[in-house]
């Protein structure tokens, strides 16, 4: 069986070396995601024969062991098949079936071609990730982005001499965490559904973890001050040499109109100029998020599948 170990900073470089090269630009394939959401996924890792295996220990049940697709060179089909067989053997050794979590389309197709008729495949639109060109965020070109350009121009005119946009540095972290707590308190009203409340709480745990370990995780981002007070922040991390993940951002939309749009554009301009693509992650089925992310016109979606052993 595979010898998994819980995620920790001691294996950060190992995990990142595989996900950076083989992660397909997916936000699920990132040391940052695994570490900051360890309370939700409980990711554990094992390196064996030039493949990295990921076990989502907190999603496992009595009858199912939950894995990500193994990271490694997919050009060697025999090696890929052996890696997948190792996962099957590991699960069966625990008297469980295999369940693959958030497989990309290419991973799903490869799995089903190597092990035909062995798995049931379920498409999940809620888990699809939105990917854009950094140019579309930074420069807002063309007619479609005319409204977004007007929003930015209005913000800069209205708050001229009053705003400051800075890259996040250590002295900002405590203030950002206070702003995040106040933002969450406003959202956790009696009117929201239990599912949405859980999503907010999971996200908040991820944000706090990221901020507490900002430098160690290799995060970068921006914070906006207006009249000396924090009114928004956004940060992320690279997923590959081409793709940057915008992990989290919050703005005081109740008093600063369209500040979320300003955050996205300015964060890409200041922190992502070396990356071709921007990943805005999943919408998790939240209608407002889906509408917003589609309005920015994604270059493509990273489609996601849940695949279960029959």
Describe this structure in words.
The chain is built from eleven helices and 14 strands. α8 runs antiparallel to α9. The model has no long low-confidence stretch (mean pLDDT 95). It is elongated and about 65 Å long. The chain has a seven-stranded mixed beta sheet with strand order 8-9-10-11-12-7-13, with helices on both faces. Strands 4-5-14-6 form a four-stranded mixed beta sheet. The protein is an alpha+beta fold.
**Which strands sit side by side, in order, in the main sheet?**
8-9-10-11-12-7-13
Which band does the percent of strand residues land in?
Answer: 25-35%
Number of helices: 11
Unreliable spans are: none
What is the topology?
Elements: E1 5-6, H1 12-22, H2 31-36, H3 38-41, E2 43-48, E3 51-56, E4 64-67, H4 77-93, E5 97-104, H5 105-114, E6 119-123, E7 129-133, H6 134-139, H7 146-158, E8 163-167, H8 173-187, H9 194-212, E9 220-226, E10 229-238, E11 243-251, H10 259-271, E12 277-279, H11 287-295, E13 300-302, E14 304-309
Parallel strand pairs: 4-5, 11-12
Antiparallel strand pairs: 1-2, 2-3, 5-14, 6-14, 7-12, 7-13, 8-9, 9-10, 10-11
Helix pairs in contact: 8-9
Question: Keywords, please?
Answer:
40% helix; 7-stranded mixed β-sheet; alpha+beta; 11 helices
What is the structure about, briefly put?
With 310 residues, the protein is an alpha+beta fold.
